[in-house]
Amino acid sequence: MSMLEVRQLDVRHGLLQAVRAIDLAVESGETVAIVGANGAGKTTLMRALAGAHPATSGTVHFEGEDITRLAAHKRVARGIALVPEGRRLFAALSVEENLLLARSARRAGTWTVEAVLETFPNLAGRRHALAGTLSGGEQQAVAIGRALMTNPLLLLLDEVSLGLSPLAVDRVYAALANLAGGATMILVEQDLSRVLAIADRILCMLEGRIVLQGPTSSLTRAQVTDAYFGLAAGGPRTTQRAPA
Q: Which fold has domain 4-229?
């Protein structure tokens, strides 16, 4: 039994069908990367897995339990944590206060404020600083740390490198590399080089569907790029910038 099993998942935004007939299984300890152009449905899929957006049809099973209609906060209590695109911190609260907010929904486990600061040492000296005064990289570290404070079994990371400097991205991915091998992660990422370095498996989405998937070791950059642009499926070229 897989940790996460998604079957024929459809998700809509009103009349717009953003996710179409997604089948997905994620094993315990696996790192899965989802790539695709803007509007491919990646963020909607992540929000649906976290319970932040309702499924139109299909099922989501986690640890053998049907959680398709389960509220987001109850999914957190069962071990699913989302690091949303844009971080969404409380700017007027300190780093420590943002981390401690996660305690209300947390599972029992080993993640504490001290453990987060050890994982992200650049935050140690900023513990009492207001989140709104942090750099983008520091804010992203807090957002990931806040999710870790819930002691998740499955960590969902949506566009963790978006808007960050190369140095900040290096720091974030160094921390994620330390988590890989123990944590189970699904990450949405545009930087293909990062994906190839950290992920066990890659999924490429196009117009709400998974059009390519496989172990990272078996996929070439050209295959992923063709799927990203819709060329693998015989689709038209797009004006989207190619993944890095």
A: Rossmann fold (3.40.50)
